[in-house]
Every structure is written in structure tokens, then in C-alpha cells.
Amino acid sequence: MKKDTIVIDLDGTLADVKHRRHLVAGKKRNYEAFHALLKQDPVNTPVAMLMSGMAFYGRSQYTDSIYKVVIVSARPESVVEETRVWLMLNEIQYDELHLLRPTDDSTPDQELKRAWLNKYGKERILFVVDDRAKVVKMWREEGITCLQCDDWEEKDALEKKDQVLRDLANLLGGPTMSYSPDYESKERAARIKKAVEMIAKELKSK
């Protein structure tokens, strides 16, 4: 049986990058210095808890988890080892890691992720957690439900680490899936609700 996939972004989503975001603000952006500090990133706890809940849901001595947790980031491929070390040190549970940016590539993040999505397959993805507005817009245009953390590139971005909880609350109790333009599958809606309701209450209490 194919597992439903949960896709998680890194910078600004799982990893709190407030301490280094000034390095890529404005016209003079130093991405080399920005990525050099990734080992110092604190974990965005609500997102890590969501990942853990998905990674272990349904797992027992005899069965594996019913969900697949995949990290998809527009970070350069050159920092894959540093990223793996950070994930290990922070005890992040995941199944796959995809860093999409080739060396010296300047393709917009949303286009890198769109290309990955087309290869991976939309039908395999249950929902995504991401932060930047342009990337979130892309996921939703593609018919993928996306829970949004604060967009650290927006001037009026919320600084709360638990911004993802607003989308979780809307997902569970709000209007029927307004995030995805072509969202018409009641069966898929039921699967998403089942996937997130088991931990939404715990996250809201934090």
C-alpha cells in the first residue's frame, strides 16, 4: 500500500532562521554566509511535533507508520551533509530529504519545488507545510493543501513560531478546504482531517 506523503520545508518552516535572515535581506544577499549558519538554527517546535506525529502514527512493533514524511527544500545541494547533521542532532523524524538547488543556480524556490512535484506525483501528497507566500501559492495552485508558517520575507510577517496552527485550525473546523482551488475530494479531505486532528489539540496547548 502506498503511503500518503507529508512534505515539510526547512528554512522558515522546520528551521527557525530569524538569527540569519538579515544576511539575505535587501539587495545585497550573502547566501554563502546565510547557509554557513544553518547549524545554529533553533527548531520550530510545532512543526517538529507535527512531523513526529506523522512519522510515528500507526507504527508498532509489527507495523510501520502509515505516513511518509519528506523534507523538500530549495537549499543548495552543497549543504546536504550539514543539513543531515542538524536533523540528526535535533532528533527530527523523517523518511527522505531533498535539497533541490544545484550549485550556482538562481531558479526561484517555487519553480524548483514545482519541478520536484511534477516528478514525485501530486496524487501521493496529503499536505505540505511551507512558509514563503510565493511557494505556498504554487502548492495551492497545483491543488495541494498547504499549511503556512509565517513568511519571513514579508514586511508584515507574523513572528509567531506557531503560525501553522491557524491553518491547522481552519483545516479542521473552518470552511471546506478553500486552500486548494480544485479541492473536491471528500475522501481526501477525510484523510487529511484524520492525519492532523490527532495532534492539533496538543499543538494548540503549547
Give the structure's gist in a few sentences:
With 206 residues, the chain is an alpha/beta fold. The protein is built from seven helices and five strands, in the order βααβαβαβαβαα.
Topology:
Blueprint: E1 4-8, H1 31-36, H2 45-56, E2 67-76, H3 80-89, E3 96-101, H4 109-120, E4 125-130, H5 133-141, E5 146-148, H6 164-173, H7 186-204
Helix pairs in contact: 2-7, 4-5, 6-7
Describe the structure.
Helix content is 38%, strand content 15%. It has 206 residues and is of the alpha/beta class. The chain has a single domain (4-204), classed as 3-Layer(aba) Sandwich (Rossmann fold). The chain has a five-stranded parallel sheet with strand order 3-2-1-4-5, sandwiched between helices. The relative contact order is 0.16. Residues 155-162 and 172-184 have low confidence and may be disordered.
